[in-house]
Amino acid sequence: MYKTLSKLLNSQKNQAFVTLATTDNYAKGAMVLGKSLRNHNTSRKLVALIGPHVSEPSRAVLRKVYDEVRLVDVLDSGDAAHLAMMKRPDLGVTFTKLHCWTLTEYSKCVFMDADTLVLSNIDELFEREELSAAPDPGWPDCFNSGVFVFRPSNETYGKLLTACSENGSFDGK
């Protein structure tokens, strides 16, 4: 029993909730998300990916909430036309979340957008397989990238970057 419990605890240390903040406004949401995960006693690490436009005061607060705060380059979809039609130009940098696949020191992660809020412990999400996500309602038939389970991999990261550069995004996100 001790070996089983020890193995479980070690695997939990090797897993993380991940979010992304590209601006101070998103950093505020990430602060609330991180605090809500802590308030509900997650046993997993918390990682915030941040863009270069996040100010030092916001970074300092994120460092108090998250176990790791990592600076990443912003990846832009380059599809201003679709985003303008949707009246969501801020979503152009959504490709930046692809950096989460570079977190290879973790065996499994759950990505959560900075505008999500945890109302109870959700550690059971780590029991899901990669890639688990909720469906997006309506056309086209796809998933919502606001919350998803994944396994970090530099190989997957490279393939995703290639696919994005060759195909772009159907909706500008």
From TrEMBL:
<dbReference type="GO" id="GO:0005737">
    <property type="term" value="C:cytoplasm"/>
</dbReference>
<keyword id="KW-0325">Glycoprotein</keyword>
<keyword id="KW-0479">Metal-binding</keyword>
<keyword id="KW-0963">Cytoplasm</keyword>
<protein>
    <recommendedName>
        <fullName>glycogenin glucosyltransferase</fullName>
        <ecNumber>2.4.1.186</ecNumber>
    </recommendedName>
</protein>
<dbReference type="InterPro" id="IPR029044">
    <property type="entry name" value="Nucleotide-diphossugar_trans"/>
</dbReference>
<dbReference type="GO" id="GO:0008466">
    <property type="term" value="F:glycogenin glucosyltransferase activity"/>
</dbReference>
<keyword id="KW-0808">Transferase</keyword>
<keyword id="KW-0320">Glycogen biosynthesis</keyword>
<comment type="function">
    <text>Glycogenin participates in the glycogen biosynthetic process along with glycogen synthase and glycogen branching enzyme. It catalyzes the formation of a short alpha (1,4)-glucosyl chain covalently attached via a glucose 1-O-tyrosyl linkage to internal tyrosine residues and these chains act as primers for the elongation reaction catalyzed by glycogen synthase.</text>
</comment>
<keyword id="KW-0464">Manganese</keyword>
<dbReference type="InterPro" id="IPR050587">
    <property type="entry name" value="GNT1/Glycosyltrans_8"/>
</dbReference>
<dbReference type="Pfam" id="PF01501">
    <property type="entry name" value="Glyco_transf_8"/>
</dbReference>
<comment type="pathway">
    <text>Glycan biosynthesis; glycogen biosynthesis.</text>
</comment>
<dbReference type="GO" id="GO:0046872">
    <property type="term" value="F:metal ion binding"/>
</dbReference>
<dbReference type="InterPro" id="IPR002495">
    <property type="entry name" value="Glyco_trans_8"/>
</dbReference>
<comment type="function">
    <text>Self-glucosylating initiator of glycogen synthesis. It catalyzes the formation of a short alpha (1,4)-glucosyl chain covalently attached via a glucose 1-O-tyrosyl linkage to internal tyrosine residues and these chains act as primers for the elongation reaction catalyzed by glycogen synthase.</text>
</comment>
<dbReference type="GO" id="GO:0005978">
    <property type="term" value="P:glycogen biosynthetic process"/>
</dbReference>
<comment type="similarity">
    <text>Belongs to the glycosyltransferase 8 family. Glycogenin subfamily.</text>
</comment>
